[in-house]
Write a sequence for this structure.
């Protein structure tokens, strides 16, 4: 978990969980906010697991999302990244299980480099192998938006294989 110099009191909450689960949480508080992609790069550098995902404060994941994503990567060693569809909401701080999407969703197409050129795949709901940034580089922190799309396009154009999980596993807050 990376705290990019947030003015809130997240540290107290995070430290409480760190005491409860000392071997499960890596936490770093930054003195200055480097922007979303600089922050994500800090998280990637600190990661110790086999797989990486991002968890934005304004988006939500299904409670079973991480397990489903990890199982797909584990079961498909030739696949470098997995993604899924998401419900779409216009209200902040809703949960995956209780949201106002009324079934409205982002239906992402199956993976191809051509499809990636047309829209931001995998958008808000990816999980990728730890070695992918080592092979293709980190997020380019000069971007304020769509830096994830740029990195994933870079990965795909260099031969990485992505796979769509045909389920709704995220909730995207359109703001």
């Amino acid at each position: 978990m990376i705290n990019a110099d947030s003015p809130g009191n997240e540290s107290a909450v995070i430290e409480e969980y760190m005491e409860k689960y000392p071997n499960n949480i890596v936490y770093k508080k930054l003195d200055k906010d480097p922007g979303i992609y600089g922050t994500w790069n800090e998280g990637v550098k600190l990661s110790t697991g086999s797989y990486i995902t991002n968890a934005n404060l304004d988006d939500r994941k299904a409670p079973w999302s991480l397990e489903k994503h990890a199982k797909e990567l584990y079961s498909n060693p030739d696949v470098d990244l997995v993604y899924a569809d998401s419900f779409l909401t216009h209200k902040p701080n809703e949960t995956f299980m209780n949201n106002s999407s009324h079934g409205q969703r982002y239906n992402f197409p199956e993976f191809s480099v051509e499809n990636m050129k047309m829209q931001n795949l995998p958008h808000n709901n990816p999980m990728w192998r730890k070695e992918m940034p080592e092979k293709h580089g980190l997020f380019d922190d000069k971007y304020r938006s769509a830096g994830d799309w740029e990195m994933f396009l870079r990965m795909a154009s260099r031969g990485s294989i992505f796979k769509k999980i045909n389920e709704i596993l995220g909730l995207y807050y359109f703001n």
Notes: The chain has a mean pLDDT of 93. Residues 10-20 form the longest helix (11 residues). The two ends are 23 Å apart (CA to CA). Strands lie at 2-3, 28-29, 51-52, 60-61, 81-89, 105-106, 126-129, 162-173.
